[in-house]
């Protein structure tokens, strides 16, 4: 087992497992935020596994998840807008998710970029890092109700 696989296993056990538990139990506000966190962490695990197994083609799966994960959270935020407005996530949870979504991707992606070296995989990793950071920040804010559109703006 190399360091990349150990890092992936650590993120799986210490991050993804609690996020999956949080997304299946408790109030709606916690489940939606935990789902957003789980997609972020699973994407990072996939990137670590790609490097650990020396399979650059696995990075494509991370790219797809980096696009679809935050988009899925935005769909949940839109469909569950009334329930989330009645019981929004706490400011502490929202702040923690914003910090994590801004800090975790660079902490994983930048060392992977250094290990990968110049080439196509490096560009994909940089795009994935940008998508994860921006996408999860935006979707986290949407779940917390900080960037909600009026009903008339989106045909509701």
Key features of this structure:
elongated; mainly alpha; 156 residues
Spans where pLDDT lies below 50 across 5 or more residues: 148-153
Strand content: under 5%
Helix segment count?
6
Helix content: over 70%
Number of domains: 1
- What is the overall pLDDT average? 87
Radius of gyration: 16 Å
Order of helices and strands: HHHHHH
SS-derived structural category: mainly alpha
Compute the separation of the termini in Å.
52 Å
**Quantity of strands, as a count:** 0
Protein model, in words:
The structure is a single chain. By secondary structure, the chain is mostly helical. The protein has one domain (3-148). Helix content is 80%, strand content 0%. It is built from six helices and no strands. It has helices at 3-24, 28-52, 59-79, 81-86, 91-116, 120-144. Helix 2 (28-52) packs antiparallel against helix 3, helix 2 packs parallel to helix 5 and helix 2 (28-52) runs antiparallel to helix 6 (120-144). The longest helix is centred in the middle third of the chain and has 26 residues, at 91-116.
Task: Give a short synopsis of this structure.
This protein has helices at 3-24, 28-52, 59-79, 81-86, 91-116, 120-144. It has 156 residues and is mainly α.
Task: Walk me through the topology.
Blueprint: H1 3-24, H2 28-52, H3 59-79, H4 81-86, H5 91-116, H6 120-144
Helix pairs in contact: 1-2, 2-3, 2-5, 2-6, 3-6, 5-6
């Amino acid at each position: 087992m190399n360091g990349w696989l150990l890092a992936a296993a650590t993120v799986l056990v210490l991050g993804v497992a609690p996020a999956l538990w949080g997304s299946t139990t408790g109030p709606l506000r916690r489940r939606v935020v935990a789902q957003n966190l789980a997609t972020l962490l699973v994407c990072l695990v996939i990137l670590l596994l790609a490097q650990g197994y020396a399979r650059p083609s696995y990075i494509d799966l991370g790219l797809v998840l980096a696009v679809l994960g935050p988009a899925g959270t935005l769909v949940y935020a839109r469909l569950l807008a009334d329930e989330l407005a009645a019981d929004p996530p706490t400011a502490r949870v929202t702040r923690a998710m914003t910090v994590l979504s801004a800090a975790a991707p660079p902490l994983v992606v930048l060392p992977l970029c250094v290990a990968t070296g110049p080439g196509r995989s490096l560009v994909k990793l940089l795009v994935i890092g940008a998508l994860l950071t921006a996408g999860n920040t935006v979707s986290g804010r949407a779940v917390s109700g900080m960037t909600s559109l009026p009903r008339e703006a989106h045909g509701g």
